[in-house]
Structures are given as C-alpha cells and as structure tokens.
C-alpha cells in the first residue's frame, strides 16, 4: 500500500440551467482551469485529520466526533463532507486506518464555481489511489455526490459530475451524463461579487417558492428547460449571438425564482451595457459569480465594466481534464 497520494479536480461554471436542474430539467456546464488539489497520507492512528490552508481551518474526526484545531465549530461544518468521503471509502473496503487530508485550492469558496464538489472529488480520488480501491470516475462521482448531499440537502449532482469528468456536459438527473463534443470556443468572463452565500439555502428558497406557487413556478422551471434544449442548436452552430440571448433569458427566469441579488444584477447589467453577447448569474446565485459571453473585440470593455461595477474579474478557460491522480 502507498503511504501518500495526490489528486486534483477542476472548478466549473454552469452555462445554463442552474436550479432548473434540481427540478429535473437539463443543465449545460463546463469545467474550468482552476483546480482543488488534495494530498493524503496514511497515519499510524485511526484519526482522520483534515486541513484546508487556504481558508484556515483544520481538525480531526475520531469515531464521528470532531475535534477542531483551527476554525472552531465552523470548521466542522466545512470539513464534514470531506470526512464523509473518507468514511465511505474506509467503511466500504473495511480499512482500519487513519489519514491526513490536506487541501489546497485556487477556487473561490461559496461563489458558485463548485469549490466544495471539486474538493470532494479530488479527496475521493486521492484516497482511492492511496488505498488501491476502485479508481473509476463513476465511483469517484458517486462518493462526491453523496458528500454534496450533506452540504446541500437535495443537490442535482451537476457539480461533482463536471468536476469528475471535465469538458462540457449535458447533465440531467436520472439520465446518463453526456459529454458534449462541441468545438466552439466559449469566450467567457467571470465576475465575482465577493458575496458568499449558501447553495443549500438558495435551493431551499426555490423549493419553498414552488410549494407556495406550484402552477406558476413549475412553468418558470420548464421554460428554463426549453432554453437549455434550444441552446444546443446554437452551441452546435457556433451561434454565440443566440446563445447570449438565451443566457439573458435564463438569468431573468432565475430572477423570477428570486435567486438573484443587487450585486449580481449590477454586474450582469454592466456587462450587457458594455457589449456582452449575454450575461447571467452562475451557480446558486444570491451572490457569488456571474458570467458574460463576449466577442473578442469587447472582452476588455466588458471586463473593465464588471470591475467598475464592483466585481472581481477572472479570466479562465474551459478544461477537458477532469479529476486526475497526480502521484
Ligand atoms: O453555486 P454552486 O456552485 O453550488 O452550484 C449550485 C447549482 C444548483 O443548480 C443551484 C444546485 C444543484 O445542486 O444543481
């Protein structure tokens, strides 16, 4: 058995379909070139020690109890999904071992870029490599999806899917994951409002709205699904103008679901006014990030406009590299 293993997994942006995807509609999502990296080591005791240097939290789990080292009880909430990944693998393979799990990530947290899923996916892969267990992507996806359920309650699974498989995916719950072979370059600018939010709370907010206004909200959600279906033609034809327009409609439907906020609106409108082909929030909303689709001659103008409106701009590219075992 190895004594150390390393793995990494990418962040994502949802091009179209967040929230609708939780209610059974499809989403189109792409992996981007920011990654979470996880190193795991065998310990001589049975403790599961987890440390995230970037967010300054650490502690260990022993018999399902948490003992914080840095970050107090908040650390437990954030580290629990990673613990659940480790526990699932140790239990399945009847391994009586302890491990150190060290996380280093360049993905902003709670921003809609799938940071928690990327960390769960990379942790699962590193642990499977360490213990010589099933390293198949399907198994890694399943473990990370189970961990997401601890954080978000009823996640669609889109985040761990794209982080595992990479590339551009068509994702719909209860359908096989489809990787799209689309050649078109998608020039996207990401703007971060810097406002942290909880995906679980926003998903619950939409659920509650749907319970109170079922006939209205189910129509908004199915209109969202139609946008995604229509966008496939635009993507295949490289018709970025139509894609941008569909992104704008997608954003307005998300506003109808009350998951936008003032900060996101201001970045989205700044991008559109500066000539973006389309702009929308990405991920759960309520803060976090927005994306703008831009033609090359407008890239600088749009990036500047987002910055002026208070956003932090990221330049990022799609990556085909999903989860990877590095050592
Ligand atoms: O904000 P993120 O990166 O956690 O993305 C959430 C996407 C949702 O559709 C809102 C939830 C889900 O599980 O699909």
Describe this structure as you would to a colleague:
Helix content is 43%, strand content 25%. It is α+β, with helices and mostly antiparallel strands and 327 residues long. The strands form two sheets. Strands 1, 2, 3, 4, 5, 6, 7, 8 and 13 form a nine-stranded mixed β-sheet that branches. Helix 1 (72-92) crosses helix 2, helix 2 crosses helix 3 and helix 6 runs antiparallel to helix 7 (240-256). The two termini are 13 Å apart. The structure holds (3R)-3-hydroxy-3-methyl-5-(phosphonooxy)pentanoic acid. Residues 18-19, 21-22, 112-114, 152, 155-156, 158-159, 199, 203, 283-284, 288 line the site of (3R)-3-hydroxy-3-methyl-5-(phosphonooxy)pentanoic acid (PMV).
Layout of helices and strands:
Elements: E1 4-16, E2 27-43, E3 48-52, E4 57-62, E5 65-70, H1 72-92, E6 98-105, H2 115-131, H3 137-152, H4 158-165, E7 168-171, E8 178-179, E9 188-192, H5 199-212, H6 214-237, H7 240-256, H8 262-273, E10 278-281, E11 289-293, H9 299-308, E12 312-315, E13 324-325
Parallel strand pairs: 3-6
Antiparallel strand pairs: 1-2, 1-13, 2-6, 2-7, 3-4, 4-5, 7-8, 9-11, 9-12, 10-11
The structure holds (3R)-3-hydroxy-3-methyl-5-(phosphonooxy)pentanoic acid (PMV).
The site of (3R)-3-hydroxy-3-methyl-5-(phosphonooxy)pentanoic acid has 17 residues, from helix 4 and helix 5.
């Amino acid at each position: 058995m190895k004594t150390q293993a390393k793995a990494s997994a990418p962040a994502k942006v949802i091009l179209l379909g967040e929230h609708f995807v939780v209610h059974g509609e499809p989403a189109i999502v792409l992996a981007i070139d920011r990654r979470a990296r996880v190193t795991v080591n065998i310990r001589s005791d049975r403790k599961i020690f987890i440390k995230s240097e970037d967010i300054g939290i650490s502690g260990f789990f022993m018999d399902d109890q948490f003992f914080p080292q840095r970050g107090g009880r908040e650390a437990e909430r954030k580290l629990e999904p990673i613990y659940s990944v480790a526990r699932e693998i140790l239990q399945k393979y009847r391994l009586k071992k302890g491990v150190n799990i060290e996380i280093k990530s360049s993905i902003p947290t709670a921003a809609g870029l799938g940071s928690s899923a990327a960390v769960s996916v990379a942790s699962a892969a590193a642990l499977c490599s360490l213990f010589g267990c099933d390293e198949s992507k399907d198994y890694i996806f399943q473990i990370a999806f189970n961990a997401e359920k601890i954080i978000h309650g009823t996640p669609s699974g889109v985040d761990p899917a794209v982080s595992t498989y990479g590339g551009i995916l068509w994702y719909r719950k209860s359908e096989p994951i489809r990787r799209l072979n689309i050649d078109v370059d998608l020039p996207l600018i990401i703007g971060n409002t810097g406002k942290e939010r909880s995906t679980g709370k926003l998903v619950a907010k939409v659920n509650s709205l749907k319970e109170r206004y079922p006939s209205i909200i189910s129509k908004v959600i199915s209109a969202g699904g139609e946008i995604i279906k229509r966008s496939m033609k635009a993507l295949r034809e490289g018709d970025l103008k139509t894609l941008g327009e569909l992104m704008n409609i997608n954003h307005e439907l998300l506003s109808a679901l009350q998951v936008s906020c003032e900060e996101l609106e201001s970045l989205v409108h700044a991008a559109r006014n500066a000539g973006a082909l389309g702009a929308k929030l990405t991920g759960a909303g309520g803060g976090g990030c927005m994306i703008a689709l831009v033609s090359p001659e407008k890239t600088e103008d749009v990036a500047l406009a987002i910055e002026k409106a208070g956003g932090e701009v990221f330049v990022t590219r799609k990556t085909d590299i999903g989860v990877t075992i590095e050592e």
